[in-house]
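Bench notes, afternoon.
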Amino acid sequence: MNEFSETYPQALHIIQLDNGSFHTTPKLKVPENIILLFQPAHCPELNPIERVWQHLKDSLAWQFFNNLDALKVTVRNILKSWSTKTLKKLTGWDYILQALNVAYI
């Protein structure tokens, strides 16, 4: 997290996490330009990454791979083929964009 913060020091970063115990620790030091936003328990539909994973899984449906390397190549090619428009469609939900707008982010 420190490396990410230092790479983009002028931006404010909001990282959405579920409430898994592996995402929390009393020892965690969060840099000033990062906000950890914990979603409510048992609400994966609130996490935009879940739609990204579903879109990826849909692209892989009914394909069979001889080995892990073949799967990795296919996943890499699928991800590279996605446009910015596709990613915005998957992750830019109105309620998220409105919340960011209200927060002046």
